[in-house]
Amino acid sequence: MATIQNKIVNKPYFRTVYLLLLAGLGCICCTTTPEKKTGSESITTKDNDLKHMDYLYQYSIIDALLAGVYDGDLSVGQLRTKGSLGVGGFNHLDGELYMNEGEVYKIRYDGSVHKVPDADRIPIAFVKHFQPDTTLTLVQKGMDYEGFRARLQSFLDQNELYAIRISGSFPKVLARAPAPAEKPYPPLAEHLKEHQHGFGLKHTRGTGVGFYLPEYMGKVNIPGFHFHYLSEENRSGGHVLDFVADSLYVEIDRASGFVVQFPDNRSFRRADLQKDREKEVEKIE
């Protein structure tokens, strides 16, 4: 059995830093940990203790989804053992997957939201056992998604992996979810061109969950920011395309690394994963 040398991250206490930006840029209250101390510990792969390892777990890769691999073998119940927060999709491309605090929801193309049974299966997902080590309160009147990403980027290291949760009141959220695909499955960009359903959500409170990943993760995952949203009382949500907010509470959890598990099926093994699909990612995001 292979042995992995893994660094265990200690998150012992918090210190608070207050930053006041110049007029027109809003203010930020930041809570973060000091420099992380590490130790070394041997872990065998059979343990699969992702919480202990502080890793991002990924089922399948984004290029497989782009190529039309819409059916997977992993169950929602199995996914819930890999993390407590994350995003993904469902077999046949039937809706967006939203995971927060270990609970999994499906947001369908008709806008309905459903709590998902453990038996449901997925073709792709990115999750992490969420243990935030930094918190921010971003305050800016009319802050849109682009502005939010630009401001948050300044707190992140470009080569690190982060799980992120954002909460607040949203005057507007533009989200989407796909309608189910029929076999033979077309590439994702082609399917979304005809079967992407958008939702203009107004005056909701809710929580977005997602990730920031560096450019070198291309072909495996989606570089940059990727969020799914769910309103309070689980009434609406979807894959985030844009939003407007005046104040957001942001929790950030830096990952120590990532683990990828491949689907064990014919569709994945025969998919064209050699093609450069960077422009397809730009279309779907």
Structure in words:
A hairpin with a 5-residue loop joins strand 16 (224-231) and strand 17. The protein has a single domain, classed as 60s Ribosomal Protein L30, Chain: A, CATH 3.30.1330.80. The protein has seven helices and 18 strands. The protein is globular, with a radius of gyration of 19 Å. It is of the alpha+beta class. The termini are far apart. Strands 2, 3, 13, 14, 15, 16 and 17 form a seven-stranded antiparallel β-sheet that branches. A seven-stranded mixed β-sheet has the order 10-9-8-7-12-5-18. A two-stranded antiparallel sheet has the order 1-4. One of its GO terms (molecular function) is acetolactate decarboxylase activity. Pathway: Polyol metabolism; (R,R)-butane-2,3-diol biosynthesis; (R,R)-butane-2,3-diol from pyruvate: step 2/3. Keywords: Acetoin biosynthesis, Decarboxylase, Lyase. Its EC number is 4.1.1.5. It catalyses: (2S)-2-acetolactate + H(+) = (R)-acetoin + CO2.
What's the gist of this structure?
The protein has a single domain (50-284), classed as Hypothetical protein, similar to alpha- acetolactate decarboxylase, domain 2 (60s Ribosomal Protein L30, Chain: A).
Question: How do the helices and strands line up, and which of them pair or pack?
Answer:
Layout: E1 3-9, E2 15-20, E3 27-32, E4 38-44, H1 50-53, E5 55-59, H2 62-66, E6 74-75, H3 76-80, E7 85-89, E8 96-100, E9 103-107, E10 113-115, E11 121-122, E12 125-128, E13 134-144, H4 145-153, E14 161-178, H5 188-195, E15 196-213, E16 224-231, E17 237-255, E18 257-261, H6 266-270, H7 278-284
Parallel strand pairs: 5-18
Antiparallel strand pairs: 1-4, 2-3, 3-13, 5-12, 6-11, 7-8, 7-12, 8-9, 9-10, 13-17, 14-15, 14-17, 15-16, 16-17
